[in-house]
Amino acid sequence: PETKYHGLYNHGATCYLNSVLQVLFMTEEFREAVIRLTNPSKEHIDHHLRQLFEELSHRTADPYDILRALEVNNVREQQDAAEYFERILRKTSGNAAKIFHGRLSHRTECLNCQTVTDSEGPFWHLPLELEDSPGENYSVENGINMFFTPTIFNGDNQVYCEICDVKVDATRKYVITQHPDVLLLMLKRFDFSYQFMSYIKIHCKADVPHTIRIPEVDQNQTYELYAVVEHFGDLRGGHYHAKIKSKDEGGKWFVFDDSSVTFYHLPGIATPLPKKNLKNSISFIRSHSAYLLFYRRKGEN
């Protein structure tokens, strides 16, 4: 069936950029913040984004000005979608970019005197380590839990405590101190292999839950999946596209593949899977190509 959405022209191998631009366009909060901005700074690219978004609302659009603003000199060389997503946000005004902006603390606690030390900084995404285990699927839910699981330092791995003035047993864990409106998870499909002494792509299937809960003691923040950027092929080539859930068409999913936009029928390449979790039944999408996962904070507009 026809859709009111439109695609982006590919200038050679610029699918990595098109996929994340479509996610930004379909993230209504970001799109509206860019369009509302008056007198944008010349050092930002909001005016280019606004022009692109207005064009996308009516026809297939050309991201040429964005390519120039991001200083993409070789349009026939594929780049990393996650890297260029972050580049766009760093060149966007703070009012729009803050939707994806969170703060993360690396929190250390001395188990001797219970002193807590925070090392805090901003983040655009949470990286989840993948393992290519034959016959097994990677669980994003387990990956999130592992990311926030405390690490214990003891024995030869004790850490120095300034209060105790000696090396002590300690725990260290990640804590989100500022939850972003949109949480981006990056499945680390491109990683360095010491076996081959080079970067490789990990092709394992991933079980991607429609809803995730950040496992924290103080508050369990819940997020809902609305976009997936997928990568097909190997490390030095291949193709990106985006699957995005529309808020204004009854929650339908669409595939944004450069200039082509089509309705996405579930099940398809990604199959919903039921999984029992205590009293709840959580639905999953199983994907062999999911790379960037975009989750909207539940309760947010």
Describe this structure in words.
- By secondary structure, this protein is an alpha+beta fold.
- It has a single domain, classed as Cysteine proteinases (Cathepsin B, Chain A).
- It is built from seven helices and 20 strands.
- Strands 3, 9, 13, 14, 15, 16, 17 and 20 form an eight-stranded mixed beta sheet that branches. A four-stranded antiparallel beta sheet has the order 2-1-8-5, with no helix packed on it. The protein has a four-stranded mixed beta sheet with strand order 4-12-19-18.
- A hairpin with a 7-residue loop joins strand 15 and strand 16 (253-257).
- Helix 1 (15-26) packs across helix 5.
- The longest helix is centred in the N-terminal third of the chain and has 12 residues, at 15-26.
- It starts with 14 loop residues before the first helix and ends with a strand.
- The model is unreliable at 268-281 (pLDDT under 50).
- GO terms for molecular function: cysteine-type deubiquitinase activity.
- It comes from Poecilia formosa.
The figure for the number of domains is: 1
Low-confidence stretches: 268-281
Instruction: Work out the helix count.
Output: 7
Q: CATH topology, anyone?
A: Cathepsin B, Chain A
Query: Structural class per helix/strand content?
Result: alpha+beta
Q: CATH-wise, what's the superfamily?
A: Cysteine proteinases
Strand content: 35-45%
Q: How many beta strands in the DSSP annotation?
A: 20
Biggest sheet features = 8 strands, mixed
Q: Name the average pLDDT.
A: 88
